[in-house]
Amino acid sequence: MALNLVKLCVGCTAIEDLAAWIDFRLDERRRAGLPAEQFHTTRMVPKRAEELLDGGSLYWVIKGNIQCRQRLTDLRTFTDDEGISRCNLVLEPRIIVTEWQPRRAFQGWRYLTSEDAPLDEGQGKSGRAKLPPELRNELASLGLL
Q1: How many Å apart are CA 81 and CA 7, to the nearest integer?
Q2: CA–CA separation, 97 and 94 (whole Å)
Q3: What is the per-residue pLDDT across 34-63, written as a single tens digit (0 to 9) for each?
Q4: Checking CA distances to 30, which of 39, 86, 103, 135 falls within 20 to 30 Å?
């Protein structure tokens, strides 16, 4: 069974912000002549790599809720210019909207089992992904989503 990661999406207030960031970074890499792949760099290297790469995803927490995920395709460790070990979490650039699941703030990333992960949007009962982002965020801030 696949294992997942959950991480705060710092600086994003909506899924659309994350999508725009991904598009910007992919375009930036293409213009630089680099492979158009998306990754997130983290300091800690997941110890359970095999489980993560067996269909796992990175679930993003935006505004206090898990709201979407991206499938993990690879984990690449490296040492940066300062001699610090790091890991690139290579992600499929496609964002999969999920049911919202409240999450408190934390540092780094956490493991998330498939049983505890929210369902993809459309597999559950809510249709909040169809709401405009501003309305979705306002309703969430009022505790109505």
Answers
A1: 25
A2: 10
A3: 999 999 999 989 999 999 999 999 999 999
A4: 86
